[in-house]
Structure formats: structure tokens, C-alpha cells
Amino acid sequence: MGSTASPAGWWYDRSITFKFSLGVGLLVCLMVVVAATGYFSLGALHRAHKAVGMNTTIQRLVFEMDRELEKARQLHAEFFLYYPRIGLRKAHEIYAQPSVRKAAKAVSISRELKKAITETQASGVLQAGHIDLNLYLSSARRFGATSIESVELVTRLAAPEDGLEANLAREFTLLRNLVDKNERLVQHFHALEHLVDEYIIVRKRHVMQSAFNQGFVLRQAARAATDFTPEKMADMEAHLDRLEAFGNEILNVDVAIAAKFRDFKLQREAVDKVSESLIRLAGQAVAFSEQEIKDAHRLAIILIALAAFAGLAGALCIALALNESITNRILRLTIVTQKFKKGSLDVTAEDDAKDELGRLGMTFNFMAARIKALIENLEAEVQAQTAELQQANDSLTQEIRERKQAEEHLRQAQKMEAIGTLAGGIAHDFNNILSVIIGFAELADMHLPEGSKSGKSIDEVLKASFRARDLVRRILSFSRKSTEGQVPVQIGPVAKEIIKLLRATIPSTINIREHIDSQNSVIIANPTQVHQVIMNLATNAAQAMEETGGILDVSLSVEDLKNDLPGRLPSGMPLAAGRYLKLTVADTGPGILPGIMDRIFDPYFTTKETGKGTGIGLSVVHGIVTGCGGAIRVESRPGRGTSFHVYWPRIEETGTISEPEALHVRGELSESAPVQGSEHILVVDDEKSLVEIAQRRLTRLGYRVTATTQSREALALFTSRAKEFDLVVTDQTMPGMTGIELAGRLRAVRPDIPIVLCTGNSEALSPENAKKAGICHVMMKPVEQEVFAETVRSVLDHWRAVSGLGSSNQL
After folding, report:
1. What does the pLDDT look like over 401-458, one tens digit per residue?
2. How far is it, in rounded angstroms, from Cα 383 to Cα 191?
3. Of the candidates 775, 769, 774, which has an alpha carbon nearest to the alpha carbon of residue 756?
4. Angle, helix 16-86 to helix 230-341, in steps of 10 degrees
5. pTM flag (> 0.85)
6. Which helix (H) or strand (E) holds 504?
7. Strand pairing category for 777-780 and 755-759
8. Cβ count near 612 (within 10 Å)
9. Which helix (H) or strand (E) holds 248?
């Protein structure tokens, strides 16, 4: 270390604060130089960016103005294209009014563009373009006025009540009544009417002139007619004069409309030139501004690089000077810290200096003492960590509990599936039994005197059998996924209709609140089943509040389901994430006890009093919702009420679902008077009793019947005598060969044979599969006598009409 008299000694005797202050001062000077350089460079960049933004905005306005005017033209053209199809009023709302608004918006944008060019710092190229913009403004305004005038002309021409064409049609109607009894005048009238209709289509002036000439011929023929009274001739002259006047007015309106279209063409040519010029000028202005940015950016990089290099050189010099006077003492302090790091907690830094490094040593000693104290308090930290581990264990326990709940939901779903499989399995046999009961009961009732006690007993048997049939179908509805009769349905109107019905039936102590969003509430479902779901849920909610009163809340909204929602759905009904319609039916009743929450969808489970419920309502709701691809979530707290949330898959576009043309399913028949006939019918069913019932029914109606209980025997009979049979009525489930398979074999022998299929369980039988197999009609067992007779007659008549054989009813 040098003496204090030398420059080096003076430097070593100075404090670290002085040394760093001097170094920092020099660095600040260098930073000021760099900052000034950057400031001027960034200023130039900012101005260039501002010019680009302004020119880009102008360019956007130009494109937007051109797009709005083009859209106005397109809507105006579509108005003339579609008003004959959809009606003048609807076309005016959909096309004409939006076209005028688009033109007005284009004018507004052009004003904004002109203001942006004249009042901002736009480039000289753009500022010179405002003269063309005035022409664009004028053309856009003229387009709007011409568009309105052309729509008024079309309204005058085609208004449904008082338009020229409507008046022309009324005059033709009156004129037709005058000439109706004169054959020669009728011929001239039809020729005149044909020419006018042709003009309405082609809009050619010479066609209307031909119509005028034909009107003159009709007038002369009427004058020559001997059966026309003077009063009748005067009426005819007046009608012909009005027809000619209306025809001339239509010609004038068509000429005016053609002139408007020519005006549109001239305006478009003028505006397109202006648009192309503005787009080109705006693009040039943006390109010029972007070039300015590149130049300014390049200059800024050069200046900042030079300033940074100078600053780096100065900082290096200062660092070398500081290293000579500070580094050695720091190395000694580093050695002490290394010893401390290796575990020597009692080591201290022996530096008595009063400068900054001395104070740093004191700070190190204080920190070492603190660390020693912290190590001694390690036990307390371990206890804190133990508490965190306990919290993590609690979270794991909660996760295990939620997983067990998910397993419970899975078991519930498997149970519901097993019940559905059992119900579908017994449906066929049970419906066969009901078919025998209903069939023989109806046959017996036909031979009993009207009003007899036995007849009344038979009627009661039939009523009970029909209730049993409906009960089987209700049981099946909750257990199977069916798309039968599903079409696009608006849930909102259905919910509102049910709410109106409930207001008139529930006690006044129950207040109904509705929050129905009818917009975009379309799903694919059976409308009757949707009605049944909402009615069941709303009725259950109302019954829960009969004694205490309360609030029944029905709401419908669109909800985006997230990935975590399916885990919170009951009964094993997971849903994929997406957009759904959520129907909520909530009440403020006593709620559902947690112990029975998992059983509410079980068939015949109910907590209601005897006579107030069967326990099948929620089961049916469950089956319908899952059949539509949806799910149900239930929230309930004892004493606070219950909420049922039904999630329906939402569709974006509505449409119609049509049945195949030649296929009728489940009794949807056309009305026809007679049901008797004399055709030859082949009946196939593995149940001997059902074969006997069908044979007796058909024989009583006059048909010739060949019956068998073996499907293979039926195939052999048909193969040998195919031309003798006019219709085949077959069961679906039979040993050896199903009805679908038998139909395919029969159609292979004779493709035009009509076939009616009877089944007790249609879960696996879709209309598409039935049509593919050649089935003309599907009847669900049990089948009533009247439905059976009408079905057979309807299928035979339809087949004969298609085959061109004509009716064959023989009594």
C-alpha cells in the first residue's frame, strides 16, 4: 500500500463510500449520456409508430367503409331475390332495413375517415385523397336513397293486400266469375290469364302487350256473346279496363325498378374507383410510416450501442481501481464464511476497521449469532412441519372419502342398469300375456249383448289390462335409452305452459317464480317426454309444500359444464364438458333426508302417503333424461328445500326429424273408413293363443287367414305359395328365427310383400332397422282390436296404392 502523499496512497486511504460514490457518479454521467441518446432515439420511434397507428386506423376505416357498403349492396340484391319466396314484409325486415342501415353506417364511416385525414397528421398522399372521398360520400348517400326508392316500388308492386299484383289477381277472380258459364269466353280468359302469369315470371314488355291484345279479343268476344246482359257486359268492360290500367301501372313500376338498377350499377362503378384509390393511398401511407420506423430503429441501435460501449469501458476502469483496495479484505471475510459454512458456528470476523467492510464484518457476526439461535429453535420448526403433514393427511383422507362416494355412484348406476335389463327382459313375455287377455276379452265382448253385466265385467278386465300395458311402458321408459319420436324441442315454451297449468291447480300458499330463457333452448327429445319430466318435477315440488306453503322456482339457462362437474352428478350419470341447457326445479319444502338420497330414483320407492304417489315418477324422469344423453343433479338440505338440476345437451340449429315415407310406427295411421277386406293374410306367432286371436279377428273382418306358430314353417309356406298372400303379420321374438330375419327371407322371395311386425319390447328395434328389413308397420303388444284392424287395412291400402292395383275392399 503506497504512502498518503502519493496518489495511490491517497486512494487507498479513502473510504469505500467515497470510492463507490465516485464510481457511481461516473456511471451516472455515462447513464445520462445513454439515456439522452435513447430518449431522442425513442422519440423518433414514437413519432413513427404514431404515424403508423394513425395510417393503419385510416386504412381500417377505408376497408370497413368499403365492406359495409358492399354488405348493403348484397342485402339489397338478396331482398329482390328472396321477397317472392318469404314474403314482402319478412324480406323487408331481413334484407331491406339492414341494407339501409349498412349504407348509413358506410356514410358515417366515410365522415369519420374524412375527419381523420383532415384533422390528424396524416401523410400528404392521404390528405390529397379527400376530394375523391367527397364523391364516395355522395355515392353512398345516393345508394341509400335509391335503395329506399326501389323497395317502395317493389312494395307498391307486390304488397300482399293492396299491391298492383294483388289488385290484378282480384280483378282476374271477379272476371273469372263473369265468364265462368261461357266456354268460348273461358278459353279467351285462360289465354289472357296465362299471358299475365308469364309476364309476372319473365317481366318482358312484349308479353304484357300480348296480354293487352288478348284482353281486346276477350272484350270483342263478350260483345258478340248472346247470353250477356247489358249490366253484365258493363261489369266486364269495367273489369277489363281496370286490368289494363293495372297492367300499365305494373309496366311503369318495372321500368322504374330497372332504372334504379342501372343507377346502382353506375354508382357502384364510381364508388369502386374511389375505394380502390383510397385503399391504395392508405397502403402507401402505412408502408411509408413503416419505413420511417425501420430508419429510426436502425439509428437508435447505433447510438445506444456506442453509448453502452463507452459506459462499459468506464465501468471496467472503476472496477479495477476498487478491486485493488477492497478485494483482499473481502477474501479474508470469505474465508471466515467458509468456516462457518462447514459447521464452525463460533467463528467471527476480526476486522476492527470503521469503514464499510468493518461494518460488514460486524453484520456477519450478528447474522452468525442469529443463525445459531435459529438452529436451537429447530425443534419448534419441526413441530410446525409436523402440523403441515397432518393437514396433508387430512386432505388425503378427504380425497379417499370422495373416491368412495364416486364408487357408490358407480354401484348405483350398475343397479339402475340391472333393473333396466330385468324390465326389458320380462316386457316381451308380460306383453304377450296381456295380448292374450285383451284379445280374448275383446272377442268375448263382441258376442255379449250391449249393457249386460258380463259385458261390463269384460270392460273392467280390458281397462285393467290397458292400465297394466301402460304401466309396463312406464317401467321400460326409465330403464332404456330410446330416441323414439325425438325431434328438436324448445324447452322454454313447454316450461311456461306447465307453469300456467300449475298456477291454476296448486294452493295459493305456494308462490311460483320463473326464470325462463327461451332463447337458444333447443334440445333433441320427445316433446311428450319433456313435458312429463317438467310436470313430474314441478308436481313433486308442489306436493312437498302443500301443508306449509313456500316458493316453487323454475328456471332455464345455458351453462358451460367444466371437467370437474361430472364427479358431482348422482346415479353414475357423467357428462362430458360442454354447453348444456340447465333446467332447475327448486322448492322450499322439508327437503330430502341424506339416508334416502341414493334411493330416490329407485322404482316404486316413495315417502308419500298411500294414494298420493306410486314411486315411479322420478324413475321415469331418470330414464327419459339419460335417454336424451343428459343427467340430473340433486341438492337438498333437511328443512331448507330441494333443487333438481336437469342437464340437457344443447343444439345450435333446429331441424325436423321425419319418419321414413313407407314406414308407420306404433299406431300412427292414416284415417280410412272401412277396415274389412277379403285379402289373404299369413299370421306367424310362437304363442298359439295369439295366433288364434289374430285369426279370429281377421276372419271376422272377412279376410282369408293362414296361421302358424313356427317361423320356419311360415317361410316354407310362403316360398311355395308366395303369390297367394297379400300381407304377412309376424311376431318379433320367436324361436329359430326372429321377425326381422323372417321378413328379410320373405322379401328375398317376394320383394313387394307388405309385412307388419308385432313386438312386446321395441328397445332393440329402431325404425331404421325395421325399414331396412322391409317392415311396413311396427305394432307394440298388446294391440287393441280396432288398432289391429285399422293397421291391417291401412297397410294393405297403402301397398295397393303404391303398386297401382287400386282399392280391394270387399265386404
Report:
1. 777 766 665 565 556 666 666 666 666 677 778 777 887 777 777 777 877 877 777 7
2. 108
3. 775
4. 160
5. no
6. none
7. parallel
8. 10
9. helix 230-341
